[in-house]
Structure formats: C-alpha cells, structure tokens
Write a structure and sequence with these properties.
alpha+beta, 29% helix, binds zinc ion, 263 residues, 17% strand, four-stranded antiparallel beta sheet
Length: 263
C-alpha cells in the first residue's frame, strides 16, 4: 500500500497518494543542464546525461607538457623539443585541474551558459543536490547547473530570471530524488470522485507535496457546492418490489435505473 494523507477542503475530501516509482522530471525542455562528477554516477543516477570535466588541456603547452620555448641548445641525439623542461603551467602533466572558475568558463564556452551555479552532491545524509558557494580556485566541485543557449532558444525563458528558474528545476529534481511525488483524488460528501483525473483516464503525478496541495485545493475550490447527500437504504425483496411499484409516481424510477446501469 502506498503512503496516503487525507484532508478536507471546501467540504471535499482530498486523498494524497505518495508515488515514489515515477520517472525522473529531467527532460530536454528545461532551461538547465545538470552535470555531475563522474564518481557520482555509480552511486546515484546522474540527473542529465552529461559528465563534469575533471581536468582541461593545458593552454600553455597545449597538452605537450614541455616548455618548448625554453632556450635549450639542441644536440644530435636530443633534437628540439625532446629535452625541453616541463611546462611551468601544468608542471609537465599536460592538463590543468578543473577549478570552479575554469568549469564556469567551460560551461559558457561549450554550452553558451549565462548563469552557472556550483553544486554539492548527495552524501550519506541527503539525496539532494545543493547550490554551493565554491571559491574560484576550488577543485572539489561535484556538479554544476547552468542554462544552455540551445535550451533557452527553445524555452524562450527571460535571462534575467534564469537563476530563479535553475533553482526551481533543481528543487524539482531533488523532490523527485527524495520520493516527494504525489497524485490525489477528490471526493464529494457522497464519496463520488470529482477531480479531473477521476473523470478522465490520465496519470496525474505532481512533484512536491506543496504543489500537490495547491493544485488539489484549487480544484476543490472550483468544484462548486456539494451535491445533495445520498443515503443507502436496506430493504427486503418484498419491500423493494412495493417501492418499485410506487416509484413511477414520485418520478424516481429513471434515477434508480441509471444508478443500477452504472453499478
Ligand atoms: Zn602545460
């Protein structure tokens, strides 16, 4: 049995049903791309299909690792380049670490990002990704969320509100990761279902209990006045047959026939 919670609003009974087994809310028509450290992927599903770079090619030596501009006399067995000293920028490694500042540059260069937020990832105590204030030279960045030029062209979202949108997308993903996904049903005083999902055959999954509550309460507000209360009556077959004879005179036979056809 899934976990449920019930409340009464505007006279209607709303039942919220917790559904943890729903699909990730991440999709292409969001503004943000979430990229996370490759080491996180074994333990937690990455939100999007992108991995955070862990280093960049050294811009000074272009990855060669040597300072070929150094003024070293070539010899017969050591031609130019092979005996050059280590590149001073990368100490001969050919790569430089992915600091926060460099990752921000990368997101802007490769994806046309305008807002880049650093993220700290899930750990033993939380499944959430949090916006984290990394220093520019920090090499401990575990993820980023940023807008991409391609996605913003599709969504048409205003850039001056981009940070707000990205934070909302992150909140939505976190709520889903924590199993905070709900559907609801609204029943009137007679126990009949009056919500839209109850009338039509579609799956109504809402991320975040707060969102589910405001949607359900809004629907209950619009559901109008309660119907007349209906009562169950128990009769013997003999009593029932008597009632059936009397019914046409009080105009209820059509109502009874309709309800019998439904049940
Ligand atoms: Zn170098």
């Amino acid at each position: 049995m899934p976990h449920t919670e019930t409340e009464t609003h505007n006279g209607y009974t709303i039942t919220y049903v917790n559904d943890e087994c729903t699909e990730s809310p991440r999709h292409d028509c969001q503004n943000g791309l979430i990229v996370v450290d490759a080491s996180m992927t074994g333990r937690y599903d990455p939100p999007d299909d992108e991995t955070l770079p862990d280093s960049f090619t050294c811009p000074t030596c272009d990855g060669a690792g040597r300072d070929e501009t150094a003024d070293i006399e070539p010899t017969d067995d050591r031609p130019i380049g092979t005996n050059a000293p280590d590149c001073p920028t990368c100490s001969g490694e050919g790569v430089i670490p992915a600091t926060f500042a460099r990752l921000v540059e990368w997101a802007k260069r490769e994806h046309g990002a305008t807002v880049v937020l650093g993220l700290d990832g899930p750990n033993d105590y939380t499944d959430r990704w949090r916006v984290w204030p990394y220093a520019d030279d920090s090499t401990n960045v575990r993820g980023l969320i940023f807008d991409t030029a391609k996605r913003v062209a599709e969504t048409g979202s205003p850039l001056d509100r981009m940070e707000e949108f990205l934070r909302a997308e992150l909140d939505e993903y976190n709520a889903w990761a924590e199993g905070d996904v709900w559907s609801y049903e609204i029943r009137d005083r007679n126990g009949d279902r009056v919500d839209e999902a109850g009338r039509e055959d579609y799956s109504n999954r809402i991320i975040g209990k707060d969102n589910a509550e405001s949607e359900a309460r809004g629907e209950a507000d619009l559901a109008g006045p309660q119907p007349e209360p209906l009562h169950a009556v128990r009769l013997t077959m003999e009593q029932w047959q008597t009632v059936m004879v009397e019914l046409p005179e009080i105009g209820l036979s059509d109502v009874i026939a309709a309800q019998l056809a439904e049940s």
